[in-house]
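Quick question about two entries, pasted in order.
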Amino acid sequence: MSNVEELRDRLAMIHITLKISDERVETLLKEILDAGRSVGLNPESRVEGFALTPSHEAAAIGLPHLRIARISDLLMIWVRAPYALDQEKCRFVGLNADELYEMLLTGAERIAETLRKYSKNAEYLEISLP
């Protein structure tokens, strides 16, 4: 088992930003949500876009999750509440901190792969992963 503090710091490093023409954003959003689903993260609607979380309960008790925001032609992905990673809370939803960390990191990596495919048509792409 890893050091939870180290996992929290690594989650806080996850930031992905893409600026691309408006007409491609909807297709891209679907691909991002599919990338999250492929690692067991479920999309939940949020005001600014979506949360990708292992379960509604995990989000409700404040565990970290991937957040996707769409602002016009800008897509931003980051980990919401990285420092809330907690063994006890994870156990409550049937996971441990290492498993949740791996789900979120793998989800972010798959999203980054998806966005890289669009980078030639993008105005801006920045990917920060641990």
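Here is the second entry:
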Amino acid sequence: MTAQRTIEDEIGEIGVWLMGEFGGRVPAAVISRVLNASKRDLEGRIDPEELGEMFHTLCRFRLQRIVAADQRITVKIPGTRLA
């Protein structure tokens, strides 16, 4: 039971860290969905000792892709000003 609590603590800390890193660029609800989906995808498939590192890597990759996709679809019109 102690090992499971440690994993949950680590996942929580990673979530806070990723919220801080991506919070200004990705809505909190989207970050939360990525965290939950990544946890579901990894649970029971990864050795518990490696879960934290894999969770961080997977979440960060997914969030980076979201940011990159958002930057690709942003339309910039030269010579215009935003109010």
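Reply: The chain has a mean pLDDT of 85. Residues 48-73 form the longest helix (26 residues). Hope that helps.
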